[in-house]
Design a protein that fits this description.
By secondary structure, the protein is of the alpha/beta class. The chain has two domains: 153 residues, Alpha-Beta Complex (Aspartate Aminotransferase, domain 1); 210 residues, Aspartate Aminotransferase, domain 2, CATH 3.40.640.10. The chain has 14 helices and 14 strands. A seven-stranded mixed β-sheet has the order 4-10-9-8-7-5-6, with helices on both faces. Strands 1-2-3-12 form a four-stranded mixed β-sheet. Strand 5, helix 6 and strand 6 form a beta-alpha-beta unit. The radius of gyration is 21 Å and the shape is globular. About 3% of the residues have low confidence.
Length: 410
Amino acid sequence: MPSQLTETPPRGAGALDVGALLGATPLYDAVIDELHGRRIRIGDRWLADFASCNYLGFDLDPEIMDAIAPAVRAWGTHPSWSRMLGSPRLYPDLEEELTDLLGAPDSLLLPNISLIHVSVIPALVRSGSLFLDSQAHRTIYDGCVMARARGASLHRFPSGDLEALRRLLTAAPTGTPRVVCMDGVNSMTGNAPDLPAAAALAREFGALLYVDDAHGFGVIGEQPDASTPYGWRGNSVVRHAGESYDGIVLVGGFSKAYSSLLAFVALPTAVKNELKVAAAPYLYSGPSPVASLATVQAGFRVNAARGDQLRADLHRKTARVLACIDEVGLTTPNRSGLPIIEIPIAETDDVQAVGRYLFDAGIYVTLAAYPLVPRSQVGFRIQVTAANSDEEITELCDTLRGLAVAFGGR
């Protein structure tokens, strides 16, 4: 679903006629009756799925699926201790492997990113100052609101405007924590921030840079170049940007590229130990299901053996879609070549008709309607995965050609 807020974030979706929104298009609140590869059946209609965030296709990988049964036999379906009481051996093993992959000082696994934001952000900032990129994910905003309720001040700056951030940092009181919050790979545009510049500015003011790279982890990695634009190993935006973890806390999840219900914070060991007594999910929440832990463990093996080939194939398929968009005169804010492709709609009132056109053509996408997103961002989002076939990419491109003729672009 779209992640950005409308122009009035505190009201969120409460002002919507939810029933009217859900009934307006078959692309919302659908029941998926059957799955075959990246084709889904809704009722009697089969569609090519371009709404999945399973970027590497791990959700359909036989080697990864086969890892579930042995782990469940060993650990049961769900050890229900909180992590403070006890962690299955799977947890420390995964944290050690993840820390090595990320090149981070340490890591902490928790069930999901939303829980991380609402627990970790308040713990980090305490009664200090938060600085929030205006296009950061809604769940980061929720974490910042939680922190504000506990005494922190909250300041928003235009997305990517580091001069505006500098002014806010200059005006902020000293002597209390300062935390700058932003996305890594943005979940709508598919673009990453200028992380080295943001990190340098945060360090200049003694602020902590808190980065949510839910959509980048597993897709982008270290040492990108012209021949390998996504980089190697899929070890996230910090390594992709050639940055260190000095003054950076990285948040990421396995629910996208690794297709598993699990998330992490990469951080210094001392901060990890503080969070063990300050973050509610560690203290009180049940752990992720054993099946999720097992698929992450198997996913690490697959990533090491053939992850770079999958990313190369993903890049190739994404490049085909982006070339088609350029060819037919549609536009996208995607400058990165990453597999999140937002297409704005010229006439925002056409969004339901566009959704129906795509559905009828057998293409399933993420529809971004107002007021779930600002009017300037109304459109739809295509997410390409390595599991999408070349035939499905061709079907998508043919549909986009028809769409450009029927509705035009911006």
